[in-house]
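Long-time lurker. I teach an intro course on protein structure, and each term I like to show students one example going from raw sequence to a predicted 3D structure in token notation. This year I'd like something fresh instead of my usual example. Would anyone be willing to generate the tokens for the chain below so I can use it in lecture? Attribution to the forum is fine with me.
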Amino acid sequence: MDEEISKLKSKIERLEAENRKMKLDLNIDTFDGLDAKEEQKETIRTNLNRKYVKKILEEGDEGAKKVVLVAGWARSIRKLKTCAFIEFYDGSTQNHLQIVIDEACVGYKDVIGVDSGMGASFIIEGEIVARKVVDRKGSQPVEMKAQKVQLVGKCQQSEYPIAKTPKEGNKIPIEKLREHSHLKPRTLVVSSIMRIRNACCIATRLFFQSNGFMEVHTPIITTCNAEGSGETLQVTTLLRKRDKEAKQIAMSSYVPPAINPNNSNPQYHILNPTQNSNQNQNQNQNRPDQKTDYFSDFFGKSTFLTTSAQIHLEMYAMAMGKVYSFGPTFRAEISNTKRHTAEFWMVEPEIPFADLEEAMDTAESYIKYVVGHVIQNCQEELNFLEQNTERGILERLEEFESTQFKRISYTDVMDLLRKSKKKFKDPAEWGEEISNEHEKYLTEVAFKEPFFVYDYPKETKPFYARLNEDGTTVRAMDLFVPRIGELVGGSQREERKNELEERMKEFELNVESYQKYVELRDFGTCVHSGFGVGFDRLVMLITGMDNIRDVIPFYRTNKNLDL
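-- Reply from a regular --
Happy to contribute to a lecture. Here you go:
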């Protein structure tokens, strides 16, 4: 037994020695003037005790008089004659730690140099001290008095794209930030939005997991168009193959010039141009222009990026019970509105043995849960938005969370629009879709609160929505909310095979392409419902942003794809 313990101790000592050597080789956290190995070991041990700004601020006065090491970026630097002040952040919190650097500090010259400014990265060691006077709202009770500073990554203000200008003052226009997707998360407004978005992600999974749903990872590349529209983004390798063939044909049409040292301007000559032209024409005639040969494509068939996870989710709902997906979807919509992008995230639950009423209940509960989660867990971010983008944001969210969502039929909505004194560009005729101007009137004038619209004309909804007994409407619903418009869309799915196939024919869809989906109706079919939540629009609702591009880390729209 003693021998085994001795061997184990020897192994631990050997591993610790290897670990120390590895860190020395990496040269972690070496400051100017710290060249001796003993001094390097000291620095490494300090680095292992690195503290995050969030923890330092949470400890407050209790952490005073402690020497700690932080690593992060400068939100701003005030350079005075004998000292400098850095608003320092490391991403752990929305707030910053003020760091005071005087002439006695190691690395002081780097801080006041031209390479140091907003956006520069630092590793700083210093003592946490209590501030005697908290001079303004938002100031922290503690600050750091720096002892050693290492400028890790320089950032010259003259070249920094999002450096504040005298004209812009303390606020950089959000439109300018869209042009710099790689730098915009460094700003307080974007970092606040992204932290709230992260909280919405957490709340989404908490809600569904705690309510008995299982998350299913559905495919991004698919042959099924759940929306039944032609607005899809094609996935193909045929273009690459076509370009390669075109290059080969072009090269075969030319012969290289003869090697002639006296010829300073060689010319290429076409070999039998007439014959080659006829040959290409014959090749083109053998390929029908109307149809693409997808058999030679990568998947052997026409494929595109998913427009919805719904069809795949239904297959798992028929075996696993309540399921949901949370991921990106795609539409080839040529739209420059504030609510549309080509790539957007959707939350899509499917519930077996549930009618449309239960789907609406679940959607309302989910939306309110996410809003409540953000209220409880994003106080710093909401406070910032309250002061800088929207007064009363917290009160608005609290009121939203406590409001009972109204429910009204499509027919009654059209009657309401027709009886209103508002003149619409799009007529409020039964059978027409609810247009953007209708949405705006209903959310901002008629109701001024969230409401569901249900039982739409069958022509306005996808083929899978269950046909009502009247033969003209389907069990479909949408949730509309102020500021956003449509937030949720869903339906009770058509569980009857014959009716489903008839609806697919009405939409001129190829039933064979949806064979497995239709076949579900042969084996243990049941009443089932589901819906999709525009996740990005939900973030817009919560943050108060009026443009969807500002709540997505990297947005994609028609003719606009950065990175």
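Some talking points for your students: The longest helix spans residues 2-26. Confidence is low (pLDDT under 50) at residues 24-48, 266-289.
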